[in-house]
Design a protein that fits this description.
This protein is of the alpha/beta class and 231 residues long. The protein contains 9 helices and 12 strands.
Length: 231
């Protein structure tokens, strides 16, 4: 497993690299955004995951992530930053990141998030699909489609939609969803789930699907058909 680490704090960068190396990961690390930009966009480097500080010098982290996604580089990306406002998190995740980790953080939490993001569905064929009403989730391509429209999902979006399409019309509580998507709720900030529900709702609107994610107060969410929209 090869990881790209972009962090401008020399001490933190060295510490993270040392810990990741102890865990058996191969790590390329640098402290400036310009070098990180070219490392991240070079497919020959063969990265499996990237950890990117949002506030990098020269080229900021969000610019790097957006460039990677525009080049169809879909490896999981974790943003590390001290910016804690909800809008900052939404902006970071909406730029193409898969997770958002606030500084200071415990190394065990970073490792848990890495393990969760690098999981992949096993034994998939090109024809593996989950369907419900007008939605089709292609498990091999990680794409969701509705009629003639389709979108490629980020890894976290994919795992979350997979959970809903695996059990449509069923209330899934927050603990079930967090365990399904992130392996363990202990390593996930509660707001992350709500952020990704927000993203999936936008995906469904973009696809003009008749399906919706309904919140059940104090319990969780249900994927169901919006009968009012259908009517």
């Amino acid at each position: 497993m090869k990881i790209l680490l972009l962090e401008d704090d020399q001490y933190l960068c060295d510490n993270i690299k040392q810990q990741l190396t102890k865990e058996g990961y191969l790590v390329d690390a640098c402290q400036d955004g310009e070098t990180g930009f070219w490392l991240g966009l070079d497919r020959n480097n063969g990265y499996d995951l990237a950890i990117i500080d949002r506030m990098l010098p020269v080229v900021d982290g969000l610019t790097i992530i957006k460039a990677m996604r525009s080049k169809k580089i879909q490896i999981p990306v974790i943003i590390v930053t001290g910016m804690s406002d909800l809008q900052d998190r939404i902006e970071g995740l909406d730029s193409g990141a898969d997770d958002y980790l606030l500084k200071p953080f415990h190394m065990g939490e970073l490792l848990a998030r890495i393990r969760a993001l690098i999981r992949r569905p096993a034994n998939l064929t090109e024809n593996s699909q989950l369907t419900y009403h007008d939605l089709i989730l292609d498990l091999a391509k990680r794409q969701i489609s509705c009629k003639e429209k389709y979108l490629t999902l980020t890894p976290t979006e994919f795992h979350l939609m997979n959970a809903f399409l695996d059990r449509p019309n069923t209330l899934l509580n927050r603990e079930q969803l967090m365990q399904k998507v992130w392996e363990t709720g202990a390593a996930v900030e509660p707001g992350n789930l709500d952020n990704y529900i927000y993203f999936l709702r936008r995906r469904l609107r973009t696809l003009e699907s008749a399906c919706k994610l309904t919140a059940v107060y104090g319990s969780g969410y249900i994927l169901e058909v919006d009968h009012a929209e259908k009517a």
